[in-house]
Amino acid sequence: MSARSGAPGPSDLLHPAAPVPTGPPAPEPAGPPAPEPAGPPAPATRVPPGSGPSTASRAVLLLLGVLLLAGSVAVSVRIGAADVGYADLGRVLGPRLGLDVEPLPPLADSLIWDLRVPRVLMAALVGATLAACGAVLQAVTRNPLAEPYLLGISSGASTGAVCVVVLGAGAGAFGVTGGAFAGALLSFGTLLLLLRRTGLDSARIVLTGVVVAELFAALTALILTASGDAESTRAITHWLLGSMASTRWDSVVLCAVACAVGLVLFRLHAGALDAFAFGSDTASSLGVDVRAVRRVLLLVTAVLTAVAVASVGAIGFVGLIVPHGVRFVVGPLHRSLLPFSAVVGAVFLVWTDALARVAFAPQEVPVGVFTALLGVPLFLLVLRKRGEL
Questions:
Q1: Pick from 91, 64, 67, 86: which is nearest to 76 by CA?
Q2: Which one, 2, 26, 125, 220, has the greatest CB density within 10 A?
């Protein structure tokens, strides 16, 4: 029981206090005490799983993860059809940092600065965004299979992109990215419209999200079948599977700002996300405004996912497998789960994109293909380690 407010906290719910005995004390048994049983001592009580490492260990692990991410970005910039060395990377970054370094020729400089660097940074940002959104949605819906595309945002973005590419709607004003972002927000608005009377209950969010996703997927297929030609269908199919190839600096800046703001908002609601593990009623008794917090978190998740999908297309499995794997290592508390998920998701997508560039070079494979190929066995491994398979 909390000493300040008198309301039970999460630890009180997990370990309730023993009842205080009333009435006269029981009489002591007569005769000599019973002998202790022979044999080895009883084993110590097991610590419940999921508590994770200590705070100091988490800080060290997070620092190592950030260093691993920085190293992964530096190595991934070198990977591709054209050979790029660390000296070349230094000659690109040096003049932009005000250092007295001989710059590269314009063509080589543009290859690294305008193509490779924004592509790798976008992979890191999208990976961090999808992984953090997946962790949040799994807590909000209390559904271990929840991922960022649960709300139908991916299908809505696909419809918006198809309208631009196939029908030419808003092509001059928005482009594919703008059309995809508008479609993603439209699908989320449809979800909220359908939930306006029934409320933001976890089960209703999941079921309504599936309905919205199927609706917009059907619209996408209808537009492609009625008006699409072979070239536009191929372009949309490639975009739907996710690709970093067309990334430019303006998209990187937009995604970086959205990711930073979203992670801060998620961190501010870490306590409420922990309370959701006990259910809506218990979270409400702990002082959480369940309806308001759910609305805010769903809105932030929808915007972040819309930005990511509009920038690079739909990349699956990152928001599903990464939170489960991280939760197995650092525990379920969201003050640790969220930053670790973001870092691991960034590292995972950086290396997956590098693999997509070179696996069938010079032909580039959409990165979503490799996230699925790698995600399925990794997810099965996580389930087996958790004893759920």
A1: 86
A2: 125
- Spell out a b/e string for 117-131, using b for 16 or more CB atoms within 10 Å of the CB, else e: bbbbbbbbbbbbbbb
Q: What is the pTM of this model?
A: 0.82
Is the domain of 297 the same as that of 347?
A: no
Say whether both 232 and 333 belong to one domain: no
Return the biggest CA–CA distance within the chain. 98
pLDDT digits (tens, 9 = 90+) for 337-361: 999 999 999 999 999 999 998 888 7
Task: Kindly state whether residues 354 and 290 are assigned to the same domain.
Answer: no
Does residue 91 lie in a domain region? Answer: no
Residue by residue, what is the 3-state secondary structure of 116-154? HHHHHHHHHHHHHHHHHHHHHHHHHHCCCCCCHHHHCHH
Question: What does the pLDDT look like over 7-28, one tens digit per residue?
Answer: 444 444 444 444 444 445 444 4
Q: Are residues 300 and 328 in the same domain?
A: no
Total Cβ atoms within 10 A of residue 85? 9
334 shares its domain with 186? no
Reported residue count of the chain is 389
Distance CA 386, CA 113 (A): 43
